[in-house]
Amino acid sequence: MAEGYIHSTESMGTVDGPGIRFVVFTQGCPLRCQYCHNPDTWKLKEGKKVTTESLMKKIKKIKPYIERSGGGITISGGEPTMQLDFTLDLLKKAKAEGLHTAVDTSGFVESAKFKKLLPYLDLVLLDIKTMDDLVHRDLTGVSNQKTLNLVELLEKEKQPYWVRQVIVPGITDDLEKMKEFAKYLQRKKYLEKIELLPYHELGKHKWENLGLEYKLAAVEPPSEKKMAELNAVFKNYKINIA
């Protein structure tokens, strides 16, 4: 039985993988994304300490709903790979129950460590903040190299995955860079789809409550027209867009 720190759970999630999903939001994250809507997940031990067994008891209660919808369990964050043993144990228990499993990750993890999770994963939700390493460093505080290395691992291991990117006006919405991103993803065999997610301000108040400076305070969410334009890029490259 493994113990770990979590921020919260969602018993009927519908946006973190296929079907209805039980979502575990783990505590702790090595990134400091400027648009993070859960900055209260950053510090590991500020979360609630739980066991994987206690989480499985909750999951089993809604298992019929999950299975009928073609859903499963998703471990998100924070960054779930910061608590690798805890995440691994929960995935093992979920697979033992016959549940579809997914992990939502920034990819900021050594590939050799992430590989330990693969035998118990059906799907990886990979957040690629941007292909531009300099922009990535400014936006998140870290390089994107580990994330791109993880893409290569997923391809090598024939692991199905989705790619997600948040569209932040003036930062990640450049049309030419998006075309480069599409070219990069075009020949990936195990990429099932990409989700472009419009930036929103829902976490702004959390930053203020924590006494943190919200650097994107002046940024407005992207227009529907802009999102359609960027989504069209991937359709042109024959990439499945959500």
Automatic annotation (TrEMBL):
Radical SAM core domain location: 15-240
Cofactor remark: Binds 1 [4Fe-4S] cluster. The cluster is coordinated with 3 cysteines and an exchangeable S-adenosyl-L-methionine.
Chief place where the protein resides: cytoplasm
MF-aspect GO terms: 4 iron, 4 sulfur cluster binding; [formate-C-acetyltransferase]-activating enzyme activity; lyase activity; metal ion binding
Keyword Lyase annotated: yes
Catalytic activity: glycyl-[formate C-acetyltransferase] + reduced [flavodoxin] + S-adenosyl-L-methionine = glycin-2-yl radical-[formate C-acetyltransferase] + semiquinone [flavodoxin] + 5'-deoxyadenosine + L-methionine + H(+)
Subcellular location: Cytoplasm
EC numbers on record: 1.97.1.4
Family matches, as SMART domains: Elp3 (SM00729)
Needed cofactors: [4Fe-4S] cluster
Keywords: 4Fe-4S, Cytoplasm, Iron, Iron-sulfur, Lyase, Metal-binding, Oxidoreductase, Pyruvate, S-adenosyl-L-methionine
Entry keyword Endoplasmic reticulum: no
Enzyme class: oxidoreductase
GO CC field: cytoplasm
Family: Belongs to the organic radical-activating enzymes family.
The protein's role, per its UniProt record: Activation of pyruvate formate-lyase under anaerobic conditions by generation of an organic free radical, using S-adenosylmethionine and reduced flavodoxin as cosubstrates to produce 5'-deoxy-adenosine.
Name of the molecule in the record: Pyruvate formate-lyase-activating enzyme
Species this protein is from: Halanaerobium saccharolyticum
